[in-house]
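Database export, one record per block. Field names are fixed; values are copied verbatim from the stored entry.
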Amino acid sequence: MALEPIEPEEAVELYLADRESELAKATQYAHSSRLGHFIRWCDEQDIDNLNELTGRTLHRYRLWRRSDGDLAPPSEKSQMDTLRVFIRWCGTIDAVPTDLWSKVVSPSLADGESSRDVMLDSEVADGILDYLSTYEYASERHVTFLLIWHALLRRGAIRALDVGDHDPQEMSLDVRHRPETGTPIKNKFNGERFIALSPETCSVLDAWIADRRSETVDEYGRHPLVSTAKGRAHLTTIQSYVYSMTRPCGFTGECPHERDLSACEAAVDRSQSFACPSSVSPHAVRRGAITHWLNSDVPEPVVSARADVSTAVLDEHYDRRTEREKMEQRRRYLNQV
């Protein structure tokens, strides 16, 4: 097979354009970000033609990415998995040998390292909510945490909400897919749904809208529910809220890692909260919330519809109940028969 020369940056652009119709925007952004590191490495190594790639050079890239001390094993695996998919695609356009993708090594994760096993415990969530209700009532962090923990919303759905999507009389949220005005949601129109809210959550949202929310309008003339002084909250902003809220020192005043809080960057700088070993992502909070609902005997179809995940995905990726917990739940139902 004769290879055709192509620069790394051009190949990545063609790859992203080719997959635009099949990848969700968030996934495409993730691929773009991960492959951006590959472009940077190629530039540093003076690789201006992907025809030059070999299994050995790809191994050197993996070592280069691993040399970043902040790259956790699950992140390294995500980086290399995306590179493998990209290299395989490159083989279809004669940019690299068609079998080169098989030489991209992705690390195996030890038990407990998979990010999908990380979740926020319900007792920790109660502590966070107690703190927020007392010291940050109806703040942007309080609202964000409630929308994940009680409404089971993803970051994209939180970002997509407008003020008018909250109906205080009906005590509900109307989650809509509006890609034409910058707020797509996962599963697109199939992910649209009404979310019933508790009186307590409604009270927090009402207070947020009336007293705390920044009166901003986005570039489409819409009024975002979760807003900042600059407009609609970005996905990374929502993520930073969650990382900062889930630091133990933030709501207990103590560090389980025996760090000096005054010298810990994750403790004194909210933007660095992700560096705390105990802080978790919005996905981990949502996973913990889903497990909490299931442990509270809420039927799987109800949780599935509210969280916008199929029961199969719910079982595989979200439900973290042990087999013994499931047995005890079945026992409670059987005792009533």
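Remark 1: Residues 4 and 94 are 6 Å apart (CA to CA).
Remark 2: The longest strand covers residues 172-175.
End of record.
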